[in-house]
Design a protein that fits this description.
The structure holds two protein chains of two kinds. Chain A is mainly alpha-helical. Chain A has 16 helices and four strands. Chain A has a domain of 215 residues. The chains are: A mainly alpha, B mainly alpha. The interface between A and B is large, with 51 and 52 residues.
Chain lengths: 368, 316
Amino acid sequence: MSEKASFRSNGGVRGWYGRQPAWVQWIVIAIALVLAFLLPYAGDIPLIGPQIVTEGIDWPSALFNMSYYVLLALGLNVVVGYAGLLDLGYVGFFAVGAYGTALLTSPDSVLYADTGWKWLMAVPVALALTMVAGLILGWPTLRLRGDYLAIVTLGFAEIIRIFATSTTTLRGDRGFASIPHPPGTWNGEPIFGVTDAVPYFWLGLVVIILVILGVRNLDRSRVGRSWLAIREDEEAAEIMGVRTIKYKLWAFAIGAFIGGLGGVLFAGEQGFINSQTFVLQFSILVLAGVVMGGSGNMAGAILGGALISYIPDRLRGISLGDTDLYEYRFALFGLVIIIIMVLRPQGLIPSRRRAMELKDREKEVAPQ
Amino acid sequence: MDFSGLIDNFGPLTVTGLAQGAIIALFALGYTLVYGVLRLINFAHSEVFLMGTYACLIVWGFFGLDQNSAAPSVGGMLLYLVIGLVVAIIASGVTALAVEVVAYRPLRRRNAPPLAFLITAIGASLFISELTGVLTHRNQRGVPPIIQAKPLFTIGDTTVTNLQLLIIVLALVMMFVLDRFINGSRLGRGIRAVSQNPDSAALMGVNKSRVIALVFLLGGLMAGIAAVMYDLKIGVTRYDAGFLLGIDAFAAAVLGGIGNLRGALLGGLLLGVLQNYAAGLFGSQWLHAASFVLLVVILLFRPTGLLGESLGRARA
């Protein structure tokens, strides 16, 4: 476990954490979890609280937005960060998850007479659908390398969006209304109502934690080691007996599954989706989040995913002179992306393993 | 499926497609040039094009022309066209260089991983297009009727307008000039050297930074011409015009073999024509879906595009 040893010898927060005994590590995790669940009440902290919370949008809603962005970033991190497959059309899977839910549950759906299911019943079917979509996209395209894969995935997302816009079954702009919320009652009141977004955020958080655990275990298994090998050198991996197509398909299917989870949650909270929700800029934004946070590192993906949702939401409602900064949110966001990447090319929280590879590569390059 | 529609309009669809494809091809050159040298997708190239579409509109505005003005005389038309082209070329070229200096050069110095370049380019693209969106209130802007599309000649039942002919001829001429420049001039030899092997080229005395800047500039110039042609053909521009056509142009570059100049021309023309056939067959909303399905099918059989990647090959 030389990798773990190098973690310990390093300075910084992660170095400190790595050196602590197991019980301290568990306490740190527990505190972090409690704090995460208490985030909706961050506005009550004196002094800094009001600076953190968003002004133009209800804070729990902003937190829920962050939670599905984080989910998407985690899923894309599997595809881009672990397996090294550049996917520019990740929003396609998000859309399949959301539309799968909508088709099975919304009264606007053509299937409603036959299905008309509750949200929870639709979840597994919608998720199976996204995994199938991942396989359908992956099967013909995974033989392509790098940038060719990027354009094909981008095309996949466009095709899904065009389908959603142009076919009558998927209703285009009119979209699907009255998608049921998640189930459950508390004191006779439904937990997942219309006004309070806090339960949705908690639900999102639980899903995120489960995804983190699952992906972490996968990363440390045979599958994760195969991804690493494929990312570093596909030919070498193939020669050493890694079945590259199989594991790349796994990465796609798992990435699609997580993206679909985001879509299912999104549909359950919003209650309404239409083709305008799934523009291509969305997946590019998530990719920016993953790389900005630190590609190949889950903590980085979480931070990046949260930032791409938080920065624009935080800018809402702030006015400078007589213009609302919200108008400029994406322009400013573009600037922020450039600045972060120029200052920290490996991302905000770089993957240690990747940082070492980078150092290695520097030695190979001739002086400029 | 409307087969009779496709067969009845085969000629007009082809000509429209060729004109559209010529614009796409000029636009695609920027992707292909940068990719050939840096092995990177210049995501901000769509905004290089966007700046061109607005720059010529603004300068025509200085002459008091807007979408409602009367068509100018022949002399005025030529004058405005040349002025528009020059201004658009300058605007696009400057934007391309600015993107290089702001988003690419600092990362190259720090020896950043390839994905980082993609993300700064996305950041630059977001910044430029969104700023344009805010400043234009996300409205579209009409183009003055510099060239009135008039039927020029007819082959069978196909009428070719002066504008379509101008676009196709201009694209072919520019392609030829660029091809000669890359394959025939001293600077072009530098570009080919860097794209074959950057480190050896640097050791042989080629100024790598200057070659890279030159490549961005060339892509910008071509995008500027494409931008004016786009304005004249479509008649309106909008803050997201670059992004939408950029996807087509990128697909065209990949279709022909990214990094290959002639591939970009072939890919652009092919994509333009086939998109129009698909629109005739399935309806215009399926135009982009069809082009992507086509792209996937072709990449399955020729994984590096129709002509392969080869900016650096001795005989490109």
